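User: tokens in, sequence out, please.
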């Protein structure tokens, strides 16, 4: 192993464990709040949620004290439920259904944007009329906003429950205030579309979109390999027994390593021998695709029916989070979709992640090693949004894991991360060859060349000292022939 030191002098000692601190974000003092939507932009984390329709922005490690004066993205909106937050470039975008009916008594889907981290917001843009009367289906996902891997495009999905063309709609935008014309993605006129989720991943050939949805008692997938211009015919990847059976809480995740995962709760009603007492069967099923969503395999079934979420890092490690029946929020990882690390409890006090009247959380990977996660917590005696930034646990390795990874790949990782002032940069290559390792700032400007030379196959290491550079987000990018990879690092002084 080769070992290098940069020639920058040491000045501040890094505080070990800084990523483990739990922070309270809101001060609502209410007994029921909506599930937060979380986004990560540079060194900041952002949260939006429907209660009082509020937006919070803070350092990615969390605020020192709760934020008592959040910004209000739409002062005239009334109680939007399960808002969806993302960004393109520096533009924060929120998609929401306004419960304040318009002059015709109808509910509308809107989006607002901010270019200054929530200090001011654009006037709402109406994307569609989605429901009428005095009811709006909030049992399943109503709207969803997804950015691609590079945060250069946004994809909006929403449910239309009124008028002609009932179904799930889709629109794309590279300018958040100007979504392209909508298109009907999934028709609900003849069969019921239940919950749905989507993921957008950027490959060299463009954006791949994978949409998972429940249709009656089926779990289906449709995908696009051309950035949403066209979608495939729905593929059934699982089915349930019983007339009233269904999938719910569907979650999709993917990465530039070609792998996608789907997790879904299920509940099926089976009448043995066509009569007698009904047996209820429920749990969570996990599915994996190794070919960008073209084919799927069922990897494992969990005997629980909890609130869940999934993410996949650039090494194809699955991050699986759930709020269990004991009221705690747990995170664990897997390299093959079957064998998992021991669970890490995210919340501080046992049972506090249950919420009094609503349960839910959102999470975002920051690079390949760190996870930002926000949830509804009852520690204060009220429902408040809490937040934590933590390093994901390492998954157990097995013989199968080697077959689960791409044959030709390079790995680059940093530890500790965040750091001050030193971090160890490790990179692994599958065969001997020329390596270029460079440091870039968040704007993509080259800061330094760390490595430029010929290396043997295996793992190599150097020490990066950040004394002479400013605090902030940087990227370490490795190029090995036609293969590249990058790790996001955070210098905190």
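Assistant: Sequence out:
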């Amino acid at each position: 192993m080769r070992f290098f030191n940069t020639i920058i002098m040491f000045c501040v000692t890094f505080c070990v464990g800084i990523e483990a601190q739990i922070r309270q974000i809101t001060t609502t003092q209410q007994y029921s709040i909506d599930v937060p939507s979380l986004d990560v932009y540079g060194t900041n984390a952002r949260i939006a949620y429907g209660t009082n329709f509020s937006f919070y922005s803070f350092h990615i490690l969390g605020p020192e004290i709760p934020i008592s004066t959040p910004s209000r993205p739409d002062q005239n909106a009334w109680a939007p439920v399960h808002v969806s937050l993302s960004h393109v470039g520096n533009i924060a975008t929120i998609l929401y259904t306004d419960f304040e009916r318009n002059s015709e008594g109808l509910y509308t889907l809107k989006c607002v944007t901010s270019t200054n981290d929530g200090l001011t917001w654009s006037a709402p843009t109406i994307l569609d009329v989605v429901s009428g009367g005095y009811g709006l289906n909030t049992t399943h996902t109503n709207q969803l906003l997804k950015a691609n891997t590079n945060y250069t495009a946004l994809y909006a999905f929403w449910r239309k429950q009124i008028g002609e063309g009932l179904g799930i709609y889709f629109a794309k935008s590279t300018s958040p205030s100007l979504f392209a014309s909508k298109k009907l993605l999934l028709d609900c006129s003849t069969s019921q579309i239940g919950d749905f989720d989507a993921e957008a991943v950027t490959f060299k050939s463009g954006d791949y979109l994978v949409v998972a949805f429940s249709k009656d008692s089926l779990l289906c997938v449709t995908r696009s390999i051309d950035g949403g211009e066209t979608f495939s015919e729905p593929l059934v990847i699982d089915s349930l027994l019983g007339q009233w059976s269904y999938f719910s809480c569907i979650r999709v995740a993917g990465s530039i390593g070609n792998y996608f995962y789907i997790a879904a709760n299920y509940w099926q009603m089976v009448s043995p021998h066509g009569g007698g007492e009904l047996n209820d069967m429920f749990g969570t099923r996990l599915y994996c695709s190794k070919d960008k969503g073209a084919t799927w395999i069922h990897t494992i079934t969990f005997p629980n029916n909890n609130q869940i979420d999934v993410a996949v890092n650039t090494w194809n490690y699955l991050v699986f989070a759930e709020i269990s029946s004991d009221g705690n929020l747990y995170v664990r990882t897997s390299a093959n979709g079957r064998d998992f690390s021991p669970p890490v409890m995210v919340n501080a006090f046992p049972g506090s992640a249950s919420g009094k009247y609503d349960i839910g959380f959102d999470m975002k990977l920051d690079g390949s090693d760190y996870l930002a996660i926000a949830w509804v917590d009852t520690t204060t005696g009220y429902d408040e949004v809490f937040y934590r930034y933590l390093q994901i646990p390492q998954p157990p390795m097995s013989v199968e894991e080697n077959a689960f990874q791409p044959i030709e790949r390079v790995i680059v990782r940093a530890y500790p991360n965040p750091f001050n002032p030193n971090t160890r940069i490790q990179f692994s290559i599958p065969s001997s060859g020329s390596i270029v390792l460079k440091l870039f700032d968040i704007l993509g400007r080259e800061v330094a060349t760390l490595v430029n030379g010929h290396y043997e196959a295996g793992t190599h290491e150097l020490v990066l000292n950040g004394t002479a550079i400013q605090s902030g987000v940087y990227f370490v990018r490795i190029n090995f022939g036609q293969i590249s990879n990058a790790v996001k690092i955070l210098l905190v002084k």
